[in-house]
Write a structure and sequence with these properties.
Elements: E1 5-10, H1 14-23, H2 36-51, H3 54-65, E2 73-79, E3 86-87, E4 90-93, H4 98-116, H5 120-127, H6 133-152, H7 156-166, H8 173-184, H9 186-198
Parallel strand pairs: 1-2, 2-4
Antiparallel strand pairs: 3-4
Helix pairs in contact: 2-4, 3-4, 3-6, 4-6, 4-7, 5-6, 6-8, 6-9
């Protein structure tokens, strides 16, 4: 398949909404809004860093999972701040360093790949019924990311940085998912996951 075009850009409509939301949160009362010049500068850095491995990452995600993106273009909206990054649509804060941005975008793209294949998430949850939905959802995602960073990109630094970033999540669900990946083995998890969903092929949304 042809990989989708990733468009990384500032969203001037969403930004005021996120700024207002963050300022309404007591724990973020000291947050300083970056200047528009700083945000735009960071976006250019993000684009440059992402381009280094864009094709490799997109192709690898599809090859590892045997899934395809069902869209030609994926917009990635950058805003001044965002207490939690998400994938539908992809919205990411401007406060990341370039490598952190690549890790975050790759994570959200796995979510996007799964949402394009609309039977995937129920299968993820069925694999680990005793875990929280967030943990169950992220075990396979983390297994895929570990395969990508170690077996495809051969980049231990990115892998370790991803684990470190997970510790900053608001719950312990991400860290719990990494523990399961280590216990079960990332290749075994991916193999089992593919065997399960191939019995009920994903359908186009």
């Amino acid at each position: 398949m042809k990989e989708p075009k990733i468009i990384i850009k500032y969203n001037r409509f969403l930004d005021p909404i996120f700024i207002g939301y963050i300022k309404s949160l007591p724990q973020w009362k000291d947050w300083q809004v970056p200047s528009s010049e700083e945000v735009l500068r960071r976006i250019e850095e993000y684009k440059k860093e992402w381009k280094k491995n864009e094709k490799i990452i997109l192709n690898a995600l599809c090859e590892i999972t045997d899934l395809e993106f069902f869209r030609n273009v994926i917009d990635v909206y950058i805003v001044s701040g965002n207490p939690r990054q998400f994938s539908n649509p992809i919205v990411i804060k401007s406060g990341f360093e370039p490598l952190e941005f690549v890790i975050t975008l790759t994570h959200e793209l796995v979510h996007k790949l799964f949402s394009d294949n609309n039977k995937i998430v129920p299968e993820l949850l069925s694999l680990f019924p005793k875990e929280t939905p967030t943990t169950a959802n992220h075990v396979v995602i983390h297994a895929i990311l570990k395969y990508l960073y170690l077996d495809v990109l051969n980049n231990e630094k990115l892998f370790q940085k991803n684990i470190t970033m997970s510790k900053g999540h608001s719950t312990n669900d991400y860290q719990r998912a990494w523990i399961i990946v280590e216990e079960k083995g990332y290749k075994n998890i991916i193999k089992t996951f593919k065997e399960i969903y191939k019995k009920s092929p994903p359908s186009l949304l």
